[in-house]
């Protein structure tokens, strides 16, 4: 039996993690759950999974939930409460499914307490890769990837010596606009951007997928997870999302991990590794699928992917700026304050103003994050464009 803490249990990855726990009650128990403000769902989850603690980011909502649960569970609030749930004594493996930079500090605190991490939060390594990986090494903590692409690479490297690796190839669906031209992208509506053709995800990740920033963040994350140089990480558009990623070795032999696009497979592996168990996900039928397609990503149309590679090449604190500016711009786009193509334009302008700090410590990362958010917000306000 393994005890888990689920940070972000009300989101897409969090609810799917609890699906896995529900299907493996004899192997997984839930020690802690956390959410942002959806206390209706948190209440239902608490009553079903009986965790030792429930934490809510919104302090006021935490108070409301505490009244509802009438002392049956310990209810905590704010960053302090989320961090406590992340480092809860009885939890052995922490699922970090809080979107954005908000997941960084709780993940770091969990690592300090020796908790293994099932990592679903890209931004943790994009912004704090050097800090997080060095800390995990010092604390003897294992980091298991939850993203389907990084899980695929993790699986392809099983039983193979790292020294024989030539490169990895991350696959991308291409999002809902993979066949659009630049002119069509100018008028993209929020509602269309939120309709991903293959995956069911939260709003932020879905928009990132539509701009290919999601893949760019995965490129940076892969650098830290697998100790790679930028030239050792390729991206290919694969509309069917059946091949989740590939590894090429020095002898030009390649290995791929395949499966239906269902995040619960990668989540289950991250929770129960090194064991593999049955589940109720759909079996892959290649004959039924028939054909698999591949193409090179167009970085002229989808500038966010190019900006991610630029940030990785610049190194240091530049990925922090990329990520923070992107979080602001995604929110602005969702609120219809900027256009789809404004997202990469403003991110690039903020990056151009930043001189990277070579090996930033946590305090510097948080300061740069704050600066980049303000810079992106000011730039987007100056544009004054409202998408109808």
Return the average pLDDT rounded to an integer.
94
The total of helices stands at 17
- Tell me, what is the CATH class of the domain at 2-141? Alpha Beta
Q: What is Rg?
A: 20 Å
Question: Topology as H/E string?
Answer: EHEHEHEHEHEHEHEHHHHEEEHHHHHH
Give the helices and strands, then pairings.
Blueprint: E1 2-7, H1 12-23, E2 28-35, H2 39-49, E3 53-56, H3 59-69, E4 74-77, H4 78-86, E5 93-96, H5 104-112, E6 116-119, H6 122-139, E7 143-145, H7 148-156, E8 165-172, H8 182-186, H9 190-193, H10 203-211, H11 213-226, E9 233-237, E10 243-249, E11 254-258, H12 263-272, H13 286-289, H14 303-314, H15 318-334, H16 342-352, H17 362-383
Parallel strand pairs: 1-2, 1-5, 2-3, 3-4, 5-6, 6-7, 8-9
Antiparallel strand pairs: 8-10, 10-11
Helix pairs in contact: 1-12, 2-3, 4-5, 5-6, 6-11, 6-15, 10-15, 11-14, 14-15, 14-16, 15-16, 15-17, 16-17
Output the keywords:
388 residues, alpha/beta, Rossmann fold, 7-stranded parallel beta sheet, 4-stranded mixed beta sheet, 48% helix
Describe the protein's architecture and organization:
- The protein is α/β, with parallel strands linked by helices and 388 residues long.
- The protein has a domain at 2-141: 3-Layer(aba) Sandwich (Rossmann fold).
- It has 17 helices and eleven strands.
- The strands form two sheets. It has a seven-stranded parallel beta sheet with strand order 4-3-2-1-5-6-7, with helices on both faces. A four-stranded mixed beta sheet has the order 9-8-10-11, with helices on one face.
- A hairpin with a 4-residue loop joins strand 10 (243-249) and strand 11 (254-258).
- Helix 10 (203-211) packs across helix 15.
- The chain is globular, with a radius of gyration of 20 Å.
- The termini are far apart.
- The model has no long low-confidence stretch (mean pLDDT 94).
